[in-house]
Amino acid sequence: MPEVIKHLSVRPKIRNWTDGTKWTNWDLHEAFLRSQPRWKPHQVDLLRDESLKIIGKTLDLRRSEFQCRGLVVGYVQSGKTANFTAVAARAADVGYRLVIVLSGVHDSLRNQTQVRLNRELVEIGVNWQSLTTETLDFEIPVNPDGFESTGTVLIVVKKICPVLRKVSEWIHRLNGRLDNIPVLIIDDEADQASVNTRGNRRDPDDQEPLDLDAIDGNPTETNRLIREILGRTPKSTYIGYTATPFANILIDPDAYDMRWVRICSPVTSWCSCLVRTGTQALRSYSVFPQMGAMFCESWSQRTLRR
Interhelix angle for 80-94 vs 24-34, to 10°? Predict the structure, then answer.
């Protein structure tokens, strides 16, 4: 009798819209990392695989319009900045023309992020231009239209209202020029300032149930401005990065309506774990099982409601 094969170790490859992409910027970025002594080969290999999976979760840029929202969860000091730098390189390769990085609320973090992205993307990549510098945050350009030539525009901004208003006003002044321009917004430390916390700001003795519709219609100003920027870019992807994802998932309503969550494998030598995705990863992410279960249940219910 023929032998019955009970288990196949080889899984068929599922096609993705990014298949066939010429990874020019990623290849240059990868070569730069491999030239740095502090980067070990297996770390770059992991970063290569993780960034490809994340960009593969975004929607096909050939759509006339799309709004994609995702969250990447990584441990503290696990290489989240390295991850979103690699994702930005791949984003340029698949066709994103504008990359906006929301980099904390302090000049020190924004400047540090700008220096790194300049060194690892703008200076070595193909057709990158930055509208912010290592010392200057975003200002509306005299000629606001920077999309006549090919390539990708980079903006690294603080996540504070005066700067976000300038970004939103700049997009408004473009008067529809971004309608067909794919935009990637990377929110570093997405649990800080981005989340609508309006429902938390009330008298603790008030026992009346929250009016979620009213809260959603009157969000905190930072949250409102991020929503406004997303609303003015018809072809946009928002990816939040955080080590503490509970605020982004458990606070309801949330502006970003996350479509996917990715548990990011650490790439740094001082923090390592197994690659785990899906329900079990979310459930076991926290050292507090109850909070992990709440995170998983909330995310599942929000996904099912869509």
Answer: 150
